[in-house]
Amino acid sequence: MWSFVSRTHVRKLKFHCYKECGWCCTHFGLPKSPLSYGGFMWRNPFPPKEFPIIFSFERDVLRNLADENNLKINVPIGEFWVEKKKKTVIILGYLFANQICPFYSEKQFRCTIYNQRPAICRMFPIVSIVTDPDKGPQVKVDVVNCPSAKQIFRTSNEEVVCPKGSSFATIFGPYFIDARFTDVYTTSAVLYMYRLRKRKEISLQPFRLAKVKKVLKSKKYEKLTFEQFYEKNEKEKFRPFVKSLFFI
Questions:
Q1: Cα–Cα distance between 69 and 103 in angstroms, integer?
Q2: Any idea what the Cα angle at residue 224 is, between residues 223 and 225, rounded to 5°?
Q3: 36 by DSSP, 3-state: which?
Q4: Which long-range contacts link 126-135 to residues 24+ away (Cβ below 8 Å)?
Q5: Cis (ω within 30 of 0) for the bond into 125?
Q6: 148-197 pLDDT per residue, tens
Q7: Could you report how far apart the first and last alpha carbons of the chain are, in Å?
Q8: Stated pTM of the model
Q9: In this predicted structure, which of 31-40, 107-116, 131-140 has the lowest mean pLDDT?
Q10: Which of 133, 139, 152 is CA-nearest to residue 179?
Q11: Measured between alpha carbons, how far is residue 121 from residues 34, 158, 194, 201, 246 in Å?
Q12: Is 187 left (phi over 0), alpha (psi -120 to 50) or beta?
């Protein structure tokens, strides 16, 4: 129920993190729900837990920040494709495989790199956002673990429902924009790889769970981030292209 929400204030609802919460910073590595593995996008089951996915450019920033602060972070390859003819691993994202974020101060209850935190942090409690051509943005929000989201939203048939007069965009503001950018970035990358495959310009190896660790450890496979792969093929950078789509 959400009857506590005053109708005169419902349009002014804004998401704000609760002070001294830190749940999203201290609960990485949740038990993995059953997944139907398949297709051409490979996923690293590292170990059988769910970790946040970060982009390659974010990984580089986090590594530099960790070095500056004498911290250790674990960022193995997370999502990728395998080009079987050229034996290339094309990396879309990395796993931020830390049980508790090393950049979170448990004494001060705050993020020590707040202005440089990755997109997965900037969009939480939005878990995912996928654009449906007919229905528009389909948003998933963690209303179980995030106390602020729990106070704002109600659920109906396992779907998160915005209070009357509000929308995900008005409630989340910049959080929603970061989630949308993540969606556009990922979708554009996946569609680009699909197009190359349909044109037979690349030969992708279908996903095989038993081969994941062997491929990642093998020195026979060249490792490229998706942005490196895209720039090598298109002679231009990927992120400016995505931003041009994002702001249309």
A1: 9
A2: 130
A3: coil
A4: 126/168, 126/172, 126/175, 126/176, 126/179, 128/179, 128/183, 129/176, 129/179, 129/180, 129/182, 129/183, 130/183, 130/187, 131/183, 131/187
A5: yes
A6: 998 888 765 567 888 888 889 999 999 999 999 999 999 999 999 999 99
A7: 38
A8: 0.86
A9: 31-40
A10: 139
A11: 24, 23, 28, 35, 20
A12: alpha
CA angle 87, 91, 95 (to 5 degrees): 135
Length of the chain: 248
Here the tokens at position 178 are 């970061």
Read off the pLDDT band of 35 (50, 70, 90): low
Rounded CA-CA distance 109/101 in Å is: 12
Q: Which amino acid is at 51?
A: F
The count of other CB atoms within 10 Å of the CB of residue 82 is: 23
DSSP 8-state assignment for residue 204: B
Q: What type of residue is 55? A: F
